[in-house]
Amino acid sequence: MVKQERAIRTRRTILEAAARVFEERGYQAATIAEILSTAGVTKGALYFHFGSKEQLAQGVLSEQDQQFVIPDRACKLQELTDTVLLHAYRLQSDPMVRAGVRLSMDQHAEGLDRSGPFLRWSDVCQRLLEKAQAQGELMPHVVPSVTADVLVGTFAGVQSMSQAVSEYQDLMSRTSVLLRHLFPSVAVPSVLASLDLSEQRGESVYEEIRQQIQRQPAAAVS
After folding, report:
1. Where are the CATH 1.10.357.10 domain residues in the chain?
2. For residue 148, is it left (φ>0), alpha (ψ between -120 and 50) or beta?
3. Which fold has domain 2-61?
4. Tens of pLDDT along 43-63?
5. From CA 201, how far away is CA 163, in angstroms rounded?
6. 46 touches 104 (CB < 8 A)
7. From the DSSP assignment, how many helices (H) and strands (E) are in the chain?
8. pLDDT tens-digit profile of 8-27?
9. What is the CATH T-level fold of the domain 76-221, as seen in this structure?
10. Are the C-beta atoms of 35 and 70 separated by less than 8 Å?
11. pTM for the structure as a whole
12. Which end of the chain has fewer CB atoms surrounding its CB within 10 Å, N or C?
């Protein structure tokens, strides 16, 4: 058990170091040597967990969404809203999320499969939209798979613009505006009127989840 816990901590240390290097350097310029130096681990420890720089990058891409699960909402469009706004909030401060976004948007990352985050996001959005549709929250013309792809694509564009213009400082307001423009063509009026699409929503959802995690017994968290 002690060895397993140590291995988990080491893997996390390596991923956090890789995230910092990938965010700063980009995929092509990042080196294993720099990640090793940042992590403060041996080459053997790194290669025990990750066989290559590509595997490290894929680890960062998959890790960014592992720790925060949106609580179940009665209104599935609100749950979708919370998912998007929480990601935007974490992108402003979480190096793992920032690195994952940079990797997924890095068109110069030759040899790296960047499709995973986009496909996962589309799948999450589609499933929530399908649940919303089953509950009568959507306009009759809405096709969940199409709307999911539109939301993911436009959100990626908003993230990219925010990074270029303000280093993500205006991302919450831009994301709120995006949802306010998109959802009137998706949600039935009564549901639309009930949604909290404010730029403060991401932080409040983050605090809600953080408090839930803190209340969990230590065994459940590990």
Report:
1. 76-221
2. alpha
3. Arc Repressor Mutant, subunit A (1.10.10)
4. 999 999 998 888 888 888 887
5. 20
6. no
7. 12, 0
8. 889 889 988 988 888 888 88
9. Tetracycline Repressor; domain 2 (1.10.357)
10. no
11. 0.80
12. N
